[in-house]
Amino acid sequence: MKREDVLRLVRPNILALEPYSTARDEYEGGEIDVWLDANENPFDNGVNRYPDPHQVALKGQLAEIKGVDAGSIFIGNGSDEAIDLVFRIFARPGVDNAISIAPTYGMYKVSAATNDVSMREVELGTDFSLPVDALLAAADENSKIMWICSPNNPTGNSFPMEEITRLIEEFRGVVIVDEAYIDFAAGEGFLPELAKYENLIVLQTLSKAWGMAGLRFGLAFASEAIISLMNRVKYPYNINVLTQAHVARALEVDITEQVETIIAQRRFVIEQLEGYATVERVYPTDANFVLVKVADADKMYNELVEAGVIVRNRTKIVGCKNTLRLTIGTEVENERMLRIIKNFGA
Ligand SMILES: *Cc1c(COP(=O)(O)O)cnc(C)c1O
User: Fold this and answer.
1) Global pTM exceeds 0.85
2) What are the tens digits of pLDDT across the range 245-289?
3) Spatial CA neighbour of 229 closest among 43, 87, 28
4) C-beta separation of 325 from 291 below 8 A
């Protein structure tokens, strides 16, 4: 899809928007050491100054880590902010629609509803395969957005790159590939493909492999045209001073070893679960969780809770009857969970 075609998908009010100009946007150059432009309190307590609204330093670090241009990065208050912005930029309330797979991450649907955008959900095929033809067939002229989560939550599997590529090439709207769990999967995902597709948005987050869920730090990667729209619509100071400072330091720390430990624990948990009579099926996973099918998910869930272990009961989700989603924890935590599952009902 060409840049002009992507811009044609944007809501007219967003294209016409004059963004809020912060005090810090209005000067250029100069060695400023007296800041009397933003009505801040002058006494330094670490947070008396507004944060950088453009997060320039962080985007420089992230560009290097991710191998992309700083101009193709958006930073949000969690992925939730990027998800909401995509709806606000592309989907006219009450008119346009979005398409997603089902089951998938619940926030897409919640965000669609808060923006008064209808969601067309297409069920995954056998073994949670990607229903490419059905997703394309679900689109009409008001379909602006398609949500693909890979590795998918809660199923855990990744979809083949070629199949997602077909959706990006054939869908006449923007395709979001949510890669929240990409660090636990093999391969680099869609970041290396970014330059090829004007209608592609890749979501990542520091909440999972990077271990910073408490900070709320989500990332979107896309063409500069889309990123500049997101920057115009976001709250100017969406990432606070403490978060920016913490992340700048944390990005210097190598997470490889922790991720490898989690992946090794995942392998151990799967091996154990596969040998238990109380588990009917262990679904393949590329994420830091594993979905299992049991005879009675509600009962097993309650027994786990009573023993002080909480997992996610997905039994009410489409295609997931009697399943539990188990996050991979520390070795000690995993062994506690496994013991309860193994001895369930005994
Ligand atoms: C956990 C998760 C996220 C992360 O959301 P944040 O708001 O960045 O914490 C995003 N997408 C999916 C599919 C997830 O499971």
Assistant:
1) yes
2) 999 999 999 999 999 999 999 999 999 999 999 999 999 999 999
3) 87
4) yes
pLDDT number for residue 212? 97
Closest atom of ligand 1 to CA, residue 205: 8
Give ligand 1 pocket residues (Cβ under 6 A): 78-80, 105, 149, 153, 178, 180, 205, 207-208, 213, 218
**79 alpha carbon – ligand 1 mean position (Å):** 6
| Residue 331 vs residues 207, 261, 267, 328, 336: alpha-carbon distances, Å | 20, 9, 12, 9, 9
The model's pLDDT over 31-64, given as tens digits with 9 standing for 90+, comes to 888 999 999 999 999 999 999 999 999 999 999 9
Question: How many whole angstroms separate alpha carbon 60 and alpha carbon 64?
Answer: 7
Instruction: State the distance from the centre of ligand 1 to the C-alpha of 181, rounded, in angstroms.
Output: 8
Q: Tell me what pLDDT residue 23 has.
A: 79
Tokens of 258: 């922790």
Task: Please give the distance, rounded to the nearest whole angstrom, from the Cα atom of residue 42 to the centre of ligand 1.
Answer: 37
What spacing in Å lies between the alpha carbon of 208 and ligand 1's midpoint?
A: 8
Q: How far is CA 129 from CA 133, 148, 215, 288, in A?
A: 12, 12, 33, 19
Question: Is the preceding peptide bond at 151 cis, omega within 30 degrees of 0?
Answer: yes
Backbone phi and psi for residue 147, each to the nearest 5 degrees, phi listed first: -105, 120
